[in-house]
Amino acid sequence: MSSDAALGLLRSLVDTALDPSYHEAAQQRADAESPEEGDQETRHSSGQRPMSNARRISTAVVLLVAAATTVTGAIALRQINAGSSLQRQELRQRAESQVIATDKKASTVQDLRAEIARASAGLGSAAATDSAVPQSAGLVPLQGSGIRLVLADAATTEKAQRAGDERLSRVLDTDLQSVVNALWAAGAQGVAINGQRLTSLSAIRSAGDAILVNYRPLSGPYTVEAVGPQQQLADGLTTSPAWADLQAAAEAYGIEVDQQSASVLRLPAGEAVLRYSRVVKGGAP
Hints:
By secondary structure, the protein is of the alpha+beta class. The protein is built from 9 helices and 8 strands. It has helices at residues 3-15, 20-31, 35-46, 53-129, 132-136, 158-163, 173-186, 230-238, 241-253, and strands at residues 142-152, 190-193, 196-197, 204-207, 210-213, 216-218, 222-227, 256-267.
């Protein structure tokens, strides 16, 4: 119901608050000679019993309240409908914006995947055809000139016993680690300890009294062979902190250290497995 129709209804209720039959009954009662005759004529002329004043007023009040409620409800409903329409429009615009942003991100992801696939394919083919990779990784035998270093435990543990630790008279895993690192820093192309070729996956550590290289137990004396420029390797080793520590251990506890140049050294291939990452065709995105 519109607001104009509701206001018209209110005006009609105010102008005709009493029933028309009430006016007719009042007029007949005034012309009658007695109340009984007036009541009888009123009943015969109207055909029904007239309503009392209180009842007519109550009816008018109820109708007024109903009309006011109807108008208020119509206004509130119009406001609700307007708000709902605005919310639907905002939600629609937001959803459209999200769809556009999602499409852009999906396109970017596809471009990045294609770029990664091209880069992976190029790296895989280059690594497979480059023979320098297995050689640098120590996976193929190596032959050339270099230096040989022999480390042995002390012949007697007397000095170490006086120092309170017999291990000081033995070659430790840390000694071998320091020597190998010094040789790599000096430009060694390949290094082996007692025939165990060192790779990027090799480990030098102790297990009780034994020293493990590539997880294989070795016993002394320990022969370290390095292929590379002889003079460069010798100078780099003898000027390193590792060499100074070995000399101090030799003087204090009797550890034997012997360094020699070698015209021909043959290092075996390492046991590591070289793996390449490749894009799996048909895999999950």
